[in-house]
Amino acid sequence: MARLPRALAVVAGFVLAATAAVPSSAHPFGAPQTATIAGTAGAPEVTWRFGATDDIAYLAVQVGALPPDRMTLDGVVLYEPGDEKALARSEAYADYVLDHIRIEGCDGSVDASGDLVADGTTVTFDCSSPASATKIEIDMMTDLHPAYQTLASGPNGQKAAYAGTTRSHGWSLDESRAAATGLSALLQIGGTLGGIALLGAGGWWLVRRRSASASAS
Fold this sequence. Notes:
Layout: H1 3-20, E1 33-39, E2 44-49, H2 53-62, H3 83-89, H4 91-100, E3 101-102, E4 106-111, E5 121-127, E6 133-138, E7 149-153, E8 159-163, E9 168-172, H5 176-216
Parallel strand pairs: 1-7
Antiparallel strand pairs: 1-2, 2-5, 3-6, 4-5, 6-9, 7-8
Helix pairs in contact: 2-3
């Protein structure tokens, strides 16, 4: 029976060694990051959101937006209110985003002016040669831990998972949104003008009827 506790101790040692190899500072096995793909083929938009607030703090330390002493001796960085604002103000964060959310042949600009927790970070691309299928690369946070993943959704129910070595997906974006917006505006204007025309015609008919009644009497 003395062998059983000894065997359990050996197993526990292996478990501790395995878990020690995983950085405790990152949370790749928690809630996944998310991204929303929108815009048109000439100007795609990617809005990316953190999965956990502790990851905001950890990334802020990594890019220099927060002081390194925020990291504990065992490598943990706990989130504190205001960390998202410090990260959003950092030019290094904007550079980091552009390095990890990319479209080949397109220039990107970062908007992190909103609440990083609720609104996320939006990257708007300017593509000189738009294509109906746009290949978007996302590998945010994978330099902290390769198990991080981003679950993305796009127009017309499109979905994709950026995980592991799969860091690029094609998205169908076209100019139909702009065309539909223009058509909608045209219909609204046409409806308004049509209503004005009907009112004018009704007023003209009423005046003619009153004139005819006056002449008859």
